[in-house]
Amino acid sequence: MAFKAKIKVTLRPSILDVQGKAAQHALENLGYSSVESIRIGKYMEVTIDEASQAEAERVCSEICQKLLSNPIMEDFSFELEPVN
Amino acid sequence: MADVTVGIVVFPGSNCDHDTEYAVASFPGAKPVMLWHNDHDLKGCDAVILPGGFSYGDYLRCGSIARFSPLMREVIDFAGKGRPVLGICNGFQVLVECGLLEGALIRNAGRKFVSRQTTISVANNTTIFTDRYEKGEVLRVPVAHGEGNYIASPETIESLESNGQVAFRYTDAGGNATEEANFNGSMNNIAGIVNRQGNVLGLMPHPERASEALLGSEDGRRLFESLFAHLGGA
């Protein structure tokens, strides 16, 4: 059974996000003075074929820890839903 | 004098592999051997170098995909046996991604890719990679990276410092670890660290690009000399 995982990987709050800072600065130049901060992360869609939702969740969590995020500087979260 | 065989790992996207090969070959008694990332064989080498570049196009995170190359399993095993592994620039990024070294390397604090000559100081001259330098000696070694900002948890930084694992720091020409000299924002001006056992070194500056006078500096040579001497060579 296939499941689609929608994974978000974000820099930990303590980590400086220079990319976000640059984008914020550009918005400031465009006149958007109300934009206080931008943090840029990654969004990934992963299709996982497993027998159950619980098993797919286990695999998804494992791949996030092993490869898709670096726990020293990033956090991850995901939503999982069955694919018809 | 016994010959020292030095394996240089070539990942898709490595671009300092031949510079490193050239630098290694300039030492009498040292023989470079190129190792393809997809192989399983370290070809009997005495030391392994992970060169600079953009392995796997820096996809996902710098060094994160290279870490899972078949050959990296051999390299991790090799390091685990106490054998020497040196990671330069992207090689340093691979070493932190695979956990052979602590911490992480994030985007330079100043946002820019920095490619220029820098000055670094020898923070620990008792490692197998640095014992031909004086402690506190200032070296001119170039850098070329966009993601060399070294970070780690406060506990990790403290243990790196108290165990003498910081090998090199960004300093001014007088050897002072100033904020100005720390162009990429690294914690404690860290430019290079060794693991707890001292057999794995990772650094962002390029010693292979400071290996002959024509390149503007020879200050990187003694890093290789230190290592090769330990391996019974030159």
Automatic annotation (TrEMBL), chain A:
GO function terms (MF aspect): ATP binding; phosphoribosylformylglycinamidine synthase activity
Keywords (A to Z) from UniProt: ATP-binding, Cytoplasm, Ligase, Nucleotide-binding, Purine biosynthesis
Gene Ontology biological-process annotations: 'de novo' IMP biosynthetic process
Keyword Ligase assigned: yes
InterPro entries: PurS, PurS-like_sf
Domain of life from the UniProt record: Bacteria
Involved pathway(s): Purine metabolism; IMP biosynthesis via de novo pathway; 5-amino-1-(5-phospho-D-ribosyl)imidazole from N(2)-formyl-N(1)-(5-phospho-D-ribosyl)glycinamide: step 1/2
Name of one Pfam family that matches: PurS
GO cellular component terms listed in the entry, alphabetical order: cytoplasm
Enzyme Commission number: 6.3.5.3
Subcellular location: Cytoplasm
Catalytic reaction(s) noted: N(2)-formyl-N(1)-(5-phospho-beta-D-ribosyl)glycinamide + L-glutamine + ATP + H2O = 2-formamido-N(1)-(5-O-phospho-beta-D-ribosyl)acetamidine + L-glutamate + ADP + phosphate + H(+)
Function of the molecule: Part of the phosphoribosylformylglycinamidine synthase complex involved in the purines biosynthetic pathway. Catalyzes the ATP-dependent conversion of formylglycinamide ribonucleotide (FGAR) and glutamine to yield formylglycinamidine ribonucleotide (FGAM) and glutamate. The FGAM synthase complex is composed of three subunits. PurQ produces an ammonia molecule by converting glutamine to glutamate. PurL transfers the ammonia molecule to FGAR to form FGAM in an ATP-dependent manner.
Family per similarity comment: Belongs to the PurS family.
PANTHER family on file: PHOSPHORIBOSYLFORMYLGLYCINAMIDINE SYNTHASE SUBUNIT PURS (PTHR34696)
HAMAP family in the cross-refs: PurS (MF_01926)
Subunit structure, interactors included: Part of the FGAM synthase complex composed of 1 PurL, 1 PurQ and 2 PurS subunits.
Name of the protein described by the UniProt record: Phosphoribosylformylglycinamidine synthase subunit PurS
Organism of this sequence: Chlorobaculum thiosulfatiphilum
Gene name in the database record: purS
Automatic annotation (TrEMBL), chain B:
EC numbers, comma separated: 6.3.5.3, 3.5.1.2
SMART domains: GATase_5
A biological process term (GO) from this entry: 'de novo' IMP biosynthetic process
InterPro entries the UniProt entry points to: Class_I_gatase-like, PRibForGlyAmidine_synth_PurQ
One GO MF term attached to the UniProt entry: phosphoribosylformylglycinamidine synthase activity
UniProt-annotated location(s): Cytoplasm
Key words, A-Z: ATP-binding, Cytoplasm, Glutamine amidotransferase, Hydrolase, Ligase, Nucleotide-binding, Purine biosynthesis
GO cellular component: cytoplasm
Gene3D superfamilies (UniProt xref): 3.40.50.880
CDD domains: GATase1_FGAR_AT (cd01740)
Pathway in which the depicted protein is active: Purine metabolism; IMP biosynthesis via de novo pathway; 5-amino-1-(5-phospho-D-ribosyl)imidazole from N(2)-formyl-N(1)-(5-phospho-D-ribosyl)glycinamide: step 1/2
Annotated catalysed reactions: L-glutamine + H2O = L-glutamate + NH4(+); N(2)-formyl-N(1)-(5-phospho-beta-D-ribosyl)glycinamide + L-glutamine + ATP + H2O = 2-formamido-N(1)-(5-O-phospho-beta-D-ribosyl)acetamidine + L-glutamate + ADP + phosphate + H(+)
Active site feature: C89 (nucleophile), H206, E208
Record function comment: Part of the phosphoribosylformylglycinamidine synthase complex involved in the purines biosynthetic pathway. Catalyzes the ATP-dependent conversion of formylglycinamide ribonucleotide (FGAR) and glutamine to yield formylglycinamidine ribonucleotide (FGAM) and glutamate. The FGAM synthase complex is composed of three subunits. PurQ produces an ammonia molecule by converting glutamine to glutamate. PurL transfers the ammonia molecule to FGAR to form FGAM in an ATP-dependent manner.
Subunit structure: Part of the FGAM synthase complex composed of 1 PurL, 1 PurQ and 2 PurS subunits.
Protein name, per record: Phosphoribosylformylglycinamidine synthase subunit PurQ
